[in-house]
Task: structure prediction
Amino acid sequence: MKVKNNSRWLYVLVLGATLFISMVYLFISHERIRTKNYVFTRNIADSPKAEIISTETMPAQHGNNSKYKILVGDKECLIKTITIDSMNSLAAMVKSDSLSNPAGIYRYDNVRNKVDMSECLVEFDLPDQYDDTAQRLLAYDGVFFESEDIITFNFLLFPDIYVLTKDGRLVTHLKTKDGAPAPHVVKYKKFNTLDQGNAYYTNAASFAIGEKLYVLSFLCPKQLGKYTIDCYDMGTKSYEYSFYVENDTEEDNTFVREIKVAGNIVTITTVKNRTKFKIL
Result:
């Protein structure tokens, strides 16, 4: 009996030590992004930069109502598309294992349901340290946003944002101050996954008005009930200031699903809330 009890205590001690080491690792991984100065200290504007027009509670939604589509099969290297008109879309693509195309923005023919591979409109300037298309799709995940005549494409795991005209011409390529290293992707059995502690979400959303690019970062300090918006000058590619936009919920930047821009009027939609405000 004494041997069994000792074995149980040994098992408990080993299990406890394992859990403790795991918790320490998770803590270090979580804090590593701050100790490496990936997050910068924001300059919160002294004067108001936005004026709330309205806030409303959203009805319960089911399923994915996003206008962006993820394609598979013969479009296996396609990240996202955004519809420009009935005939055309813009498509963000990664480098394919079977094709010689560079990663970048391409024109997508809505009628033929086909990517025009003859011309890469904008080539992505990103490190490619990945083994195959599946890993690139995981690392290069991103989302399009439409701002009247301007389209922005921001990566979720890189600090890079591409600003484009609706016909796919590059306006600027900007790296936000909330930097992060290229995400590590590891293979577990037959699956690819982000390497915990070595992959950080960077920017949730972006939109452009005039010469300014406005960015909602994942990495900013949490402000429940407020969106934290960083302003960059697209000409100089430099950070200028940040400001808050309050909403009627406890949501922050991580909840943003859609942004619409009309002139200087911006509407941010989440699952629970829609907030409309004017950029001053």
Notes: The chain has a mean pLDDT of 82.
